[in-house]
Amino acid sequence: MVITTILLVVVMVLIWRVSIWLIIPFCLVFGSIELVYLSSVLYKFKQGGYLPIVAATILVTIMGVWHYVHVKKYWYELEHIVTNKDMGELIQAHDVKRTPGVGFLYTELVQGVPPIFPHLIEKIPFVHSILVFVSIKHLPIPHVEVAERFRFRKVESRTSKMFRCVARYGYSDRIEGAKEFAASLIEGLQSYIEEGHFMTNIQETEAETTSITESNTRTRKASSSTVYIEEALRPSETTDLTQPRISSYSGHSSGRISEDQSRTIAEEKQCIQSELQKGVVYILGETEIQAGPNSSFFKKIVVNYMYSFLRKNFRQGEKAFAIPRQQVLKVGMVYEI
Question: How far, in Å, CA of 193 to CA of 150, rounded?
Fold first, then answer.
């Protein structure tokens, strides 16, 4: 009851944005009720009042063990994250081949590539033609608009056809089935590719603008003395010397996509669609957490036995995401924390 009250207060502060003057009476009222209940349990401790305390102790222990190891696992992955530079060296060193289809590799990291991917490449140097590192994140808001659900980033290079994706859901949103989720993700990926080319074109345009502006600035500085002398002789001719010559650039200032870029976008979108029709494989990491050899005896008990028992009896990832069993590929790896 105390934990529920504390969590509700957190929700009131972070999500509902309730005034502190309403939270204080809430805590006083429910805190008083829980204090009375706790005193009655302690008063009848020998007559059976110990049962609620034992049950609460077991629940708190389970929650604490799960949270402790889960945080340690997350920090392990964050410390062993794979950067784009490491990805390029990894792919070249193992001569990675591409197999038909689309692969979704699930990870809890919202940035970078998890350490389980190098483990997969070292054992089996094959990845799908389109590989997406997917992270499911629940935000402290009721709903996330469909147009804002997916966030993508390129991995390694533009030609690698590897992407990072964060799928964002509110606490009232329902996660779609496997087919609906894959279709929505691919649709968002195609939109990202088109926007990516458009943004690249804008950046090139801005770079060209900066170059032209710097060139005009240097020209004005170099010719300032000449302009000053010629101003008295030919004032009508010296006026144009200080104007930036951007007439040739004005036609490109809108950042529009050229025909070559449009053709490239169409080819990439068609490639993704054709690979999607060849099949989707969901890659799940079966990470086994173990305490390090120099860990204390208590930590080994918590990690190697208590957490292992909870992990084996927890619901599987493919069940949580409604992933068909025939499309699941599990990759095993041991983390020493």
Answer: 13
